[in-house]
Amino acid sequence: MRVTVRVYATLIRVAGGRIHRLDLPEGASVADALRAVSLYDVVTSGGRVRRFYKVLLNGRDIDFVGGLGARLGEGDEIDVFPPLAGG
Amino acid sequence: MDPLRRYSRQLPLLGPRAQERLAGSKVVVAGLGGLGSFVALELAALGVGSLVLVDHDTVSESNLNRQVLYSQADLGLPKVYAAARRLRELRPDLAVSTHHTRITTDNAGTLIRGADVVVDALDNWASRLALADAAWEAGIPLVHGAIDGFYGQVTTVEPGKSICLHCIAPGPAPPRRPPAIVTTAAIVASHEVSEVLKLLTGAGEPLYNKLLFIDTREPRIDQITLHRTPCENCKRLTPMKDGSQS
Question: ipTM of the assembly?
Answer without folding.
Answer: 0.90
